[in-house]
Amino acid sequence: MTNNEQHTPLLSVDHLVTEFSAKGNKSITVVDDVSFTVNPGEIVAIVGESGSGKSITSQSIMGLLKSGGSITNGSIHYQGSNILTLSKKERRQLRGKEMSMIFQEPMSSLNPMLRIKSQIAEALRINQPSKSKRETMDNAIDLLKQVEIPDAEAVANRFPHQLSGGMRQRVMIAIALAGDPKLLIADEPTTALDVTTQAQILALIKDLNKRNGTGVIFITHDLSVVADIADRVLVMYAGKIVESATVYDLFEHPQHPYTIGLMKAMPTLDSQVEELEPISGNAPNLANKPEGCAFYPRCPFATEACLTAVPELRTLEKGHDVRCIHPVKEGVLHEK
Amino acid sequence: MKSDPKNVLLKVAGLKKHFPVQKKGNKKEQQVVKAVDGVSFHVRAGETLGIVGESGSGKSTVAKLIMQLLQPTEGEVVFQDKDIFNQTKKQRKQTQKRIQMVFQDPYASLNPRMTAKQIVTEPLRIHEKMSKEDLDKRALELLEEVGLGKHHLNRYPHQFSGGQRQRLSIARAIALKPNLIVCDEAVSALDVSIQAQILNLLKQLQKNYGIAFIFIAHGLPAVKHISDRIAIMYAGQIVEIADRDVLFTNPKHPYTKALLDAVPPSNPRHRKEKTLVKGEPPSLMSPTRGCPFVSRCPNATEGCHTNAPELLEHEVNHHYACHHPVQAPNNLENIGGRNS
Fold first, then answer.
1. Which helix (H) or strand (E) holds A116?
2. Which residues of B touch A220 (CB under 8 A)?
3. Distances in whole angstroms, Cα of residue A259 to Cα of each of A5, A53, A276, A315, B303
4. Which residues have a Cβ under 8 Å from the Cβ of B182 and sit 6 or more positions away?
5. What residue spans define the domains of chain B?
6. Chain B residue nearest residue A190, CA to CA
7. What gap in Å lies between CA B168 and CA B149, rounded to an integer?
8. What is the number of other CB atoms lying within 10 angstroms of the CB of residue B35?
């Protein structure tokens, strides 16, 4: 980690609440009191299942919420200043130069009508409008080389449909890097890719993070990807962070029953079990969350108290927070 | 039910599917995409054969051929000793009853205008003459079989969660008590906690009814969990096929090894500097004389460019197609079989 000059984190999200409302309906809280920091050179993974709020958290940071969504509470500080008070124009200037994002499906994020080089050049021009066309094109090809695209000159002249999924994702990363951002948000960037391609893209992101000291927020549903890439992990469930710890701590001493459940449900190559232990039931409907702990209906360790008490996120030891009234560490867990 | 080694349910031999494509600007010259190019394997009654491959490896085309949704270019599929592409219409209908399929996206494979009851009883209405009372009774039985209940009978697909929809697809697939179910990426789109529920359900059904599965997926951990034997496909061909534990502890084909190495660790302590396989699968249009993996293979030699290796049984029940197989057994500390 390269956080020696200052102690201000690169990004600091405090008590973020993001709600969505549709006409005539009660608004739904999708991100509920989420706080975390990202330091320069750090990879923070946000892990959760569909509807956990992990993608909306990242869209809130980028200022890319779809219509109906709004941040109703909390703050997001980038290098010490609150970006939620910025104008739309100022916000746009942050995107690309300071923070950029890559998505799950690169095909739908690329323009099918434009050659790869024009799409990268577009991102470059926004950040360095004074450069000549020649220089911009050279830079574009440099970026393609940086993301390890073989035969970059030829690929620059192709259209997105002529590239494989892995290549498209590399192009997306090249575009994201065009403004030399300090923060990269990757939203399930390898979910749609094949296993060997996934390994290549993960290695690339790790390499960029190490080489340039880029802070990374890596959003995924896959715990083994987390185990491979993250420094710190936030586990989200029903809009809330339920556990946050360093990656080693989380895998060695998981505290929240949901985290433990996820680990037991995940088939792995080195597990010896015949029967997986799924988490029973389904994730709650966000419009109709249970009172008390949101995980209560699915929790094998739940007690009477969990039915009514809304657990707070509390620190068990330095760097390890959990939102549960019966964390494993306190040793009162008994399976029902 | 334990699988009987002699009891071969399905036998695929020399199966090929080539799709013609028109070359741009040259209407006369026709090229072909060799989606499946000479695949042979068998499935025994009551066992699960996993088929693993990356996109474009031909695994879904194999599934469609077995389901008779496509006609093969060459080769045969023998089910219960009958060639399924060479039978009368009546025989064909019988075969269709015995082989069912579960797809990746349950939302796209369930009719949004049919209720759960209509969905699970549709195969019965087509293939069996049953009274309305019997159909109602069977519908409930089927739903209960997959962990759904009476209150779900009259709901529509959009009222179910992803996992429940996949349960519904499974209920429909078992309605006719088939001998074989082809699962094409059946759990790939589901959340981890739900994926485990569906995997356990499939295992349970197999135990209760002795159904054989062909489990097609790109995610190795899930395939390992459910399969008895595993076939690895690459560029339209099977490059290795072996018993599950053998494949994971002693992979012989360099591509199999590369796939295993690419799977992220289950614990950060097992992070390792990996030697990643470079590049991407070859175009299925360009004719290759040699091994399809040659351009990415660390063991490749001159001979591999010109001489395609055949899939041969080098050890008992362990077939692979390679001139220079992997020597050292895979890292046994991290990847142990269930008996180790």
1. helix A116-127
2. none
3. 35, 16, 15, 16, 51
4. B63, B66, B67, B99, B100, B101, B102, B213, B214, B216
5. 235-335
6. B264
7. 11
8. 23
Q: Cβ of B2: how many Cβ atoms within 10 Å?
A: 8
Coil, helix or strand at residue B220: helix
Q: What is the pLDDT of residue B337?
A: 37
Q: Would you state the torsion angle of the CA atoms of residues B301, B305, B311, B314, taken in this order, to the nearest 10 degrees?
A: -20
Q: Which two tokens stand for residue B325?
A: 């197989």
CA angle A314, A318, A231 (to 5 degrees): 105
Q: What residue has token string 């109709």?
A: A288
Token reading at B69: 């949704």
DSSP assignment letter at A289: P
What is the pTM for the complete model shown? 0.87
Give the C-alpha separation, A149 to A229, whole Å: 21
Shortest CA distance to A78 belongs to which of A14, A130, A27, A26? A14
Contact A145, A177 (CB under 8 A): no
Q: Which of B55, B199, B268 has its CB closest to that of A267?
A: B199
Of chain B, the end-to-end C-alpha distance in Å amounts to 23
User: At B40, is the secondary structure helix, strand, or coil?
Assistant: strand
Q: Residue A74 to residues A33, A48, A156, A216, B32: CA-CA distances in angstroms? A: 8, 21, 42, 21, 58
Q: Which of B164, B224, B336 shows the shortest C-beta gap to A267?
A: B224
In this predicted model, what pLDDT tens digit does every residue of A183-241 receive, in sequence order? 999 999 988 788 888 898 899 999 999 999 999 999 999 999 999 999 999 999 999 99
